[in-house]
Specification:
binds magnesium ion; Undecaprenyl pyrophosphate synthetase; binds 3-methylbut-3-enyl trihydrogen diphosphate
Length: about 260
């Protein structure tokens, strides 16, 4: 396999990568195992991708680990996933600290089983001093939950006189989102051959580059990440402008505008 990493332009890296880690269940079933086996193998991919992002100095990685809608899965699977979450967090805190990675959680923590919530809250405190990388776990998260929450809080602040409706800007909305402390993702990756967003970061992905791969999450290793980044680097991010505007140096753009 060619060394993909060598070909990555270190001056054009995504600053924030978000991933919909999908395909664990099908991966396991194809191998004759139960779905939980796939989730366990998925943790190995999380380690690899975290390592890959660290090698490239990518400061923000958001992982969609469990959606609001995933609560409707069979109880055995939900219980197994929660147990895996507690186990993984417990084991990985030391590694996060060693690598200067700060953990964040976005999602409705109040719906998590008490033991999972406690473990996470401890991990958040224990990694809070880290400054180099940010690992954001979307847990019991969905965009519509997040937007509903934001709108309720905005309405509350208007009602109690802390917010003037005429002064609500796009930045105000961002402040009320669960992601208020993070930049928007530059690159969204979804594994397992599905072409949908599944209620993930609907507002924040407005200008993200989307990358879909048939590879299932347990098979998604560092080389797959590097491939996605190389693909990202071939894109032209125009943000509504013309190709020419993007190509011209900054100085000329000002002169001609
Ligand atoms: C992603 O894999 C992990 C979670 C949603 C928790 P899936 O469990 O959705 O696996 P598939 O899509 O059924 O194969
Ligand atoms: C999206 O995967 C959620 C996570 C990866 C946590 P799903 O497997 O739940 O998505 P759908 O149901 O196929 O859209
Ligand atoms: Mg799935």
């Amino acid at each position: 396999m060619p060394d993909l990493k060598e070909n990555i332009d270190l001056t054009k890296l995504p600053y924030h990568i978000a991933i919909i880690m999908d395909g664990n269940g099908r991966w396991a079933k194809d191998k004759g195992h139960d779905r939980l086996y796939g989730h366990y193998q998925g943790v190995e991919s999380v380690r690899n991708i975290l390592e890959g992002c660290a090698e490239l100095n990518i400061p923000y990685l958001t992982l969609y680990a469990f959606s609001t809608e995933n609560w409707d899965r069979p109880k055995d699977e939900v219980d197994g996933l929660m147990e895996l979450l507690v186990d993984t967090i417990r084991k990985e805190v030391a590694t996060l600290n060693k690598n200067n990675i700060k953990l964040h959680v976005i999602g409705d923590m109040s719906t998590l089983p008490p033991v999972a919530k406690k473990e996470l809250e401890e991990a958040l405190v224990e990694t809070s001093h880290n400054t180099k990388f940010n690992l954001i776990l979307a847990l019991s998260y969905s965009s519509r939950w997040e937007l509903l929450n934001a709108i309720k809080n905005i309405a509350r602040d208007v009602k109690n006189g802390n917010l003037d409706p005429d002064e609500i800007e796009q930045e105000t909305i961002q402040k009320y989102l669960a992601t208020s402390n993070f930049p928007d993702p530059d690159l969204l990756i979804r594994t397992s051959g599905e072409y949908r967003i599944s209620n993930f970061l609907l507002y924040q992905l407005a200008y993200a580059e989307l990358y879909f791969t048939a590879t299932r999450w347990p098979d998604f290793g560092k080389e797959c990440l590097f491939e996605a980044i190389l693909d990202f680097q071939r894109r032209r991010r125009r943000f509504g402008k013309t190709d020419e505007q993007i190509t011209l140096p900054q100085q000329k753009q000002v002169l001609h505008s």
